[in-house]
Amino acid sequence: xxxxxxxxxxxxxxxxxxxxxxxxxxxxxxxxxxxxxxxxxxxxxxxxxxxxxxxxxxxxxxxxxxxxxxxxxxxxxxxxxxxxxxxxxxxxxxxxxxxxxxxxxxxxxxxxxxxxxxxxxxxxxxxxxxxxxxxxxxxxxxxxxxxxxxxxxxxxxxxxxxxxxxxxxxxxxxxxxxxxx
Length: 181
Known about the structure:
The protein is mostly helical. 67% of the residues lie in helices and 0% in strands.
């Protein structure tokens, strides 16, 4: 029997609360940087951006309706994936807060991913999907990897315009997603 506190929303709440706490702690460092969205160059980019945001909001809302599976195997694997994403996300937020605004973020987790916040969010969602054994949640989590692509390209184009050769050099040494991809 599931109680309201064994539903996936608890993991989403923890993730969002941590995000809020980190933004609050580093408020002065994030000011004017964290919620700047890159200019979407065309209609396709805007559609994919809207689709990505819609899927993310949908995953958050859906988490209120799916219980975590209290089966030790799925719960252990799911929570492990979630924890990996959660830690990676927190590390990326702290790394981003501690870089100078006139240079691209290239240290910490930004060495192994040009978009660690987005990649780690996918891991958080995927972990929740596995812990709840929700195939729909897992599929939508993977879908975000594809629909976020135009947004990642827009962010990179913005960074190339802002940081020039420093960012181009960084792009050659750091993968877009993770490690080698």
